[in-house]
Amino acid sequence: MGFFERYLSVWVGLSILVGVVLGNLAPGVFAAVAAIEFAHVNLVIALFIWVMIYPMMVQIDFSAVKNVGKAPKGLVLTLIINWLVKPFTMALLGWLFFKLVFVDLVDPQTASEYIAGMILLGVAPCTAMVFVWSQLTKGDPNYTLVQVSVNDIIMVFLFAPLSALLLGVSDIQVPWETLLLSVVLYVLLPLIAGVATRKRLEARHDASAVPQLLTKLKPWSVIGLLATVVLLFGFQAETIISQPQNILLIAIPLIIQSYGIFILTYWLALKLKLTHAIAAPASMIGSSNFFELAVAVAISLFGLHSGAALATVVGVLVEVPVMLSLVYFANRTRHWF
């Protein structure tokens, strides 16, 4: 790893600080950028995520994707954790903290909204950022693509009924435009661009062409990540400053959920004797969330300034630092596998 990558957590920390400072100094600028959206998907964020993910898509060799069927245990593990475990543990933690532990700190209505926002995060497994975490742990890009794609397909059918079950609401309106547009922007388009690029390079019959391009693109991937962090924290800078206590209360169960799901998945991957290149991304998918979808649904159901919307935003705020720590742990324990 180069100097820039080795100290990525430092750059992310500085990006968080820069985002909060700039967001408070120039809130109008960030408000204008936040308004550039379609179907609750911010197009500027989408651009930076696209820049971040494209180099990872170039790594995907479709001729090797078919081999995923020869090692189905990793995919089965991901699906069990994401759809039979994670939503229910998130709901349980939300109830435990805001109905018992923090009952004297938050009024009942707001507590219920916080729980609702957490549930929406729990029912939406990660789609875009997991490609970053997979690359940082030297995960199998072909296997990661299949894991994400299968989760996206299942999410189309299960997100609404599972959310309705856990929220106790029967008339949840899923913003299909947000869901489908996010999948197209964060998975389909960069995948098509990556595959086309790889085929064009391979047509030259130069074995070094793909690695050389990836070396050139790698800094752009990190720049895309840091720019995304600056914007996300800039958008929420005023909230971070004005409601630090509530953000901390929400962050505690979310962090416990992320680490807990990772530990469970990682331990099961060890027991199943999966390779580290499959086990690490599988654990990352369950530990992170499709926050764009969760935020959009929370706003449509409860309103822009609701506790549910705030809870989904806190999910965005804690994800990057938490996931970087898990990347570090996964890399340090590679020898376990």
Q: Could you give a quick summary of the protein structure above?
A:
The protein is 79% helix and 1% strand. It has 337 residues and is mainly alpha-helical.
Summarize the SSE layout with pairings.
Blueprint: H1 3-6, H2 8-25, H3 27-34, E1 37-38, E2 41-42, H4 43-58, H5 62-65, H6 73-101, H7 108-122, H8 130-136, H9 141-167, H10 176-202, H11 209-235, H12 237-242, H13 244-271, H14 276-287, H15 291-302, H16 307-332
Antiparallel strand pairs: 1-2
In the predicted model, the low-confidence regions spanning at least 5 consecutive residues are none
Largest sheet: 2 strands, antiparallel
**Overall pLDDT metric:** 85
Q: Tally the beta strands.
A: 2
Protein structure class: mainly alpha
Element string (H = helix, E = strand): HHHEEHHHHHHHHHHHHH
Q: Quick one: overall form?
A: globular
Q: Within the largest sheet, what's the order of strands?
A: 1-2
Give the CA-CA distance, first to last residue: 21 Å
Distinct helical segment count: 16
Helix content: over 70%
Percent of residues in beta strands: under 5%
Radius of gyration based on Cα positions: 19 Å
